[in-house]
Amino acid sequence: MTDRLTGERLVDDMTEAERDRARRVEAVLPELRAAAVKADQEGSFPIGHVALLREAGLLGLVVPQEYGGLGGTLRDLAAATFAMGTACPSTALAFFFHNTSASRGLLPLEAIEAGLFEDDEIPVVRAFAEKVLTRMASGVWLANFASESVKSSTANIAIATTARRTEGGWLLDGEKSFGCATGVADYYLTTAKLDGYDTAEGLVTFFVPREAAGVSSRAPWDGLGMRASANNGIRLDQVFIPEDEALTVPGAFTRMLQMSRGSFVGNQLAISAAYTGCAQNVYDVTIEQLTRKTFADTGRPIASSPMHQQIIGEMTVQLETAFLWLRRQLLLETSEPPLRPKQEVFRQWRMGKGSVTEACFQVALGAFKASGTSGASMSSTAGRALRDLAMGLVMTFPAERGRLEVAQLVTQAKENALFATVEKP
Length: 425
Fold this sequence. Notes:
This protein is α+β, with helices and mostly antiparallel strands. 48% of the residues lie in helices and 11% in strands. It has helices at 16-42, 48-55, 74-87, 89-100, 103-113, 122-137, 252-257, 269-292, 306-334, 342-371, 381-390, 399-417; strands spanning 142-145, 162-166, 169-176, 187-194, 203-209, 215-217, 234-242, 246-247. Strands 1, 2, 3, 4, 5, 6, 7 and 8 form an 8-stranded mixed sheet that branches. The relative contact order is 0.11. The model is unreliable at 152-157 and 418-422 (pLDDT under 50). Keywords: Flavoprotein, FMN, Monooxygenase, Nucleotide-binding, Oxidoreductase.
């Protein structure tokens, strides 16, 4: 296929409708790529990308057409974040988190259809869910803020931000330590806990306007990872949110999660697709450079040396490893009818996330080794990718935690199978 789209390198069996949506992504890649180096150096999200993605209709990529979106699915999102990751990983990451907001609309609606809400709860839940989707489709950028600096020994994400009822709405207090598009998004879709609750039944969601009184940005983020993703996080100091800008039905959050196909809210693999796009780019650039440059004494390409051949072979294996895990997870989370029970899909993701991100990091490490001292610069593709992909090793959870959970699931299931009740002879 002569006009193969970048996203098809990951999702290689696109339907024509998926290709139409992928063409929209392809059209913005040159501008993302052109701004990537400067954005990384300055550690600042290119604000022009908001209008660029909005005008392309991509802020509604995974919103159903009935709500004004493009009608894409997780396949479209994975292809999009992969493609953007080859051009500007920071934008791919921020775009991913915007699209995770759609789960706050899609999953509650599915939970309603599944009969998980009472009759008196349905109007409130439906109104909030539809507001999420219609705002995204209209070009509103939503930053999805859940993570916090507070840690729990029993959960990947612990929520300490509190919501207290006040006249006409709610007051929010807390701090969100991680969330792309700080100071960029129109609204921060913020997860908090109802005052007085200490379980997940009290988790609730709010639309927090970027310029609302009491909202402030944390100190500029200067860490490993995508530096131009506006990843500062926010502080909330008695921020007032009107009643109709909140979903505060107790238990709504946990009920909607029952509808996801596997990973948390069902779209987490798309963040690993962004990392894989970054790995694909550093692989392509490194191969091109090593085959173009030659040894002064022999005239042979540098890529032909035994050392470089070994490194290139390892990079290729690692990149294909990332693809294999991603494609398998994508199949499990999108196939109709489902191929595996939800628990198996979840278990696969706990293994797959770490396997993908570790493989991607190894691609960047190989590029760094193969590029030598001339590539040991943060302005080089290898240098930036090495730092960007390091974040994937810890994002949400490291590979070790995922594998521990898988081992516990497997061994506990086996232990249970070893015991049975029998009648006395």
